[in-house]
Amino acid sequence: MNDTLNIIQTTQEVADRFNELAQQEKWFEIQDELFADDAKSIEPPASPYFKNAEGKTAIRAKGEEFLKHVTAAHELKTSGPIVTGNHFAVGRTTDIDVNGFGRVRIDQIMLYEVKDGKIISEQFFY
């Protein structure tokens, strides 16, 4: 019998891998590897920068669209994750130049929910 075992990562394991990739600024790799296909990306209600997105493809498109407008990066920093239950949170500082906005510094908390070893939602507080 040749059964394939599907090993589901714990929230801590997902958070650890997320941190490994985030420290290298590999955000699309995080999405490709760790996000569920139907993940949700939730922005603050009055965000001047982004809109919510649903589904891995839409989340990636949102990131790609944003990167088209970034002309310089001054500081990009992500804290280590704090894990509790099926959630983890990180702090993120982004200091960049953006077409149409000028220099923008965003200090935020990024909250992730994990189910069955995949990130099913990300929510940003800034």
UniProtKB/TrEMBL annotation:
Coiled coil: none annotated. It comes from the Bacteria. Transmembrane segments: none annotated. Residues 10-126 form the SnoaL-like domain. Pfam families: SnoaL_5 (PF20409). This is Nuclear transport factor 2 family protein. It comes from Danxiaibacter flavus.
